Amino acid sequence: MKVTTLGLDLAKTVFHLVGLDEKGHEVMKKKVFRNNLAATIQNILPCRIAMEACGSASFWGRKFQGMGHTVILIPPQYVKPFVRTNKNDWHDAHAIAEASLRPSIPTVPIKTEEAQDLQSFHRARQILIEFRTATINHVRGILAEYGVVLKVSASKVKEELSRLVNDPEDTRISPFLKETLRAILKELSGLGEKLEEFDRQMASFAKKNPVCNRLMTIPGVGVLTATILIAVVGDPFRFKNGQHFAAYIGLVPRQHSSGGKTSFWGSRNRVIPISERF
Question: What does each C-alpha distance from 220 to 131, 246, 272 come to in angstroms?
Answer without folding.
Answer: 27, 16, 20
